[in-house]
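My hope is that you will study the record closing this message with an eye to the fold:
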Amino acid sequence: MEFYNAIPPLLVQFIMTVAFSFVVGLEFRSYYQANEYKLNFGSTRTFVLIGVLGFILYTLDTSKQLFAVGLFLLGSFLLLFYWRLSANSQFSMFSTIFALLIYLIGPIASVFPSWFLVLFAVVLILILSEKTLIHRFSDQLANEEIATLAKFLIISGVILPLLPDQPIAALLPVTYYRVWLAVLIVSGFSYLSYLVNTYFFKSRSLIITGFLGGLYSSTAATVVISRQASRLDSASGRKVSSALIMATTMMYIRLLGIIFVFDRSLAIQLLAPFLIIIVLSLITISGLLTFKNQTTELHEVSEVKHPLELTTAILFATFFMVFAFLTSYVTNQYGSHGLKFLAIIAGFTDIDPFILSLLSGKFILTDSSIVSAIMLASGSNNLLKAAYAIVLARNKSILLAVVWLGILFVASFLYVYY
């Protein structure tokens, strides 16, 4: 360490400039050789010279005028070079832009931390080495997904910072900021699940449907799996039940992640019961899948509903405020016992708005009351999913899952009351 501190910083910056320019130059040469392109203005040595030129000009003049003049001259030279060779249909601006980026390595080594220089060089190398992967991804990416990403950036980076962190009303003890933050977090979890569903598992088995669908919405996943189970015989029960249990297991993981974002202390208190449920559920799934059968595995290819529609966000925000109002009224009138009853009722709807309203609102509640309400809501939601499975499947393939969901329902009540 003392030896490193004795090295002049200017020398370290120069060595880093030369080293990274050389490495990127090597990858640039390999890129052109692999794609059978003709090298135009040079490769490895040229890139090193461009990097050294940028470093020297940036260091010589504190006003950075020399560096700006060098950038202008280099850019003009490359532009003329491109214009002269543009008649060749295979020639593009790629190599000229890359040369300008190499010219910036010297200033980056001088001004930014070393980790940023490493990151900058790694990005350049990945752009060169992963051409096929980038093209495949851009070809598969639907045009509407760009608009979807823009929506997500708008609701997270534009709308959220503009909302005041003030209570909406006396009977609605949540702030505008908290309401939209809840929309953003739930939409973010659902959006991630949507992307994985859409681009990585277009054709998937029932267990994968339960895994990914549970991250999106365990109730929706239960409906999808139960409808598919109606076309199977009872011999497929172990696979169907495993998928249904997996969807509920992912619900607990998803809830734990959301609660951790809002209130870490509550997440820690819920960690023990949730982990017990998750581990026992996974053990049950493993036991069910251990038994092989000769039935054909059904693959689910239905589309997942997009989570970033404006109507969906408004509906979620509305439910959020309704539950916040009900929670405020019930707790003021009936205390913790009323809250437990409300939690059971909320479990037969969408539990996310209810739970997030508990975490975001300014209620006169103890942490233990909130934990009990979350356990009861998740437990009664399991009973709702069991009812959906029975009604939609209409056969014995879902029997094991229904029994397990019933056990979780009872266990949630026992945890709260005993």
Observations:
- The mean pLDDT is 79.
- The chain is about 80% helix and 5% strand.
- Residues 2-137 form one domain.
- The longest helix spans residues 310-346.
